[in-house]
Each structure stands twice: as structure tokens, then as C-alpha cells.
Amino acid sequence: MAVTLVPFSWERVMNAVEKVRERLVRATSALKSAGVDYAVVGGNAVQIHVARADESAVRQTKDVDILVRRSEFDSVVRALTTAGFIHRHVAGIDIFLDGPEGRPREGVHLIFAGEKVREHELSANPDVLESEDASGFRVLSLPALVRIKLTAFRDHDRTHLRDMIAVGLIDSTWKTTLPPELATRLQAILDDPNG
């Protein structure tokens, strides 16, 4: 596939970051206005927590992941649709595209509280109540975020865990707070942070 390159531009880089931030604020504001309980999860939640320790260690992300309860799904769809998002069910995931030209990888992705994302995962997602205020929106608490990342344990989840370890948010003392399988995964990352 041929790729058309445009000139180098810091403005394009900053625009990409701003679009994600704007999408997150618009989505969470719509959910809050609709009275829907939610928590920001995924890369944005990692950013928020990492920035509290060291803003220079923040890694950018291209999408917005939001934890909601399935029982509030209809209210979520109404709220996000009213905010200009377009609902699609793609590859088993509920995604809200940012308008007609929106792409799934840049959308708002729903994660359901109390459910497993994939059947083989070790544990279900936490509830939205395991969250805290992050200056205008709810973000998953650090303990719940660490559990989600250790449960999913994909390459980018391990990268997020390494970022949190690098800034001192999590360390070996966390193993005592985790189920044995998740503690083993954390220890593997602590033993080989570059692996």
C-alpha cells in the first residue's frame, strides 16, 4: 500500500494530541450530563497517572477507552450520539466514530464493567466506581488500572505497566495486593523491564 507523505510538521503532531484530548473531554462531558457513571481507562488513564509522577514520561495514545456498565448502554449510545459520535459495532467492540469520516482506531471504545474483554482473560473488569476525579472527568483508580493492564497483558499493556514502573507508581510491593496470576505477571515485568 502506497503512503502519501506530507511535509514534516510539529503542528500536525500537536493537532493529533489535541484531537484525542478534545474527543475525551466531549465524550466524558456527554456521559456526565446524561448521568451515566463511567471511568476513563486505557492509554489516557495511564497518561493521567504517569503525568502525576513525571510529565516527561507521558506516552501519547490515539483512541479513548471508557469503562461503562452494560446496563447503561442505551444511555451511553444516546449521550455519545448527541455529542456527535456515530456508534458502530466492529470486531466485537462497541466504537463511537468521531463523525462520518472518523476511523475506528481514533474512536471512543467502550469497555464493560464487570465483564471480561476476551473470554480467556483471568478476571473481569472493575466497576466504574473504582475511579477518581481527574480535573473534570472520572479516571480509573491506579489499583484498578494496574489490574486491567495485567489482565489484558498485550504488548501495549506491558508497555504501559513499564511506564508506570519507571516513574515509581508501581513496584514489587504491589504483588501482595494482586491475585497470584497477576502478581506473577507483574514480577515478570519487574524481572525483565525491557522484555
Under CATH, the topology is which? Beta Polymerase, domain 2
Distance between the termini: 31 Å
Strand content: 15-25%
Classify the helix fraction into a percent range: 40-55%
Q: Provide the spatial order of strands within the biggest beta sheet.
A: 1-2-5-4-3
H/E topology pattern:
HEHEHEEEEEHHH
The number of helical segments is 6
Q: What characteristic shape results from the CA principal axes?
A: globular
Return the CATH architecture: 2-Layer Sandwich
Largest sheet: 5 strands, mixed
> Domains counted in the coordinates: how many?
1
CATH class: Alpha Beta
Question: In total, how many beta strands?
Answer: 7
* Rounded radius of gyration (Å): 17 Å
Summarize model confidence as the mean pLDDT.
Answer: 94
Write up what this structure looks like.
By secondary structure, the protein is an alpha+beta fold. It has a single domain (35-191), classed as Beta Polymerase, domain 2, CATH 3.30.460. 42% of the residues lie in helices and 15% in strands. The protein is built from six helices and seven strands; from the N terminus they run αβαβαβββββααα. The protein has helices spanning 10-33, 42-53, 73-82, 142-152, 155-166, 180-191; strands at 38-41, 64-68, 86-90, 93-97, 108-112, 131-133, 138-140. A five-stranded mixed beta sheet has the order 1-2-5-4-3. Strands 6-7 form a two-stranded antiparallel sheet. α1 crosses α3 and α4 runs antiparallel to α5 (155-166). 33% of the residues are buried. The model has no long low-confidence stretch (mean pLDDT 94).
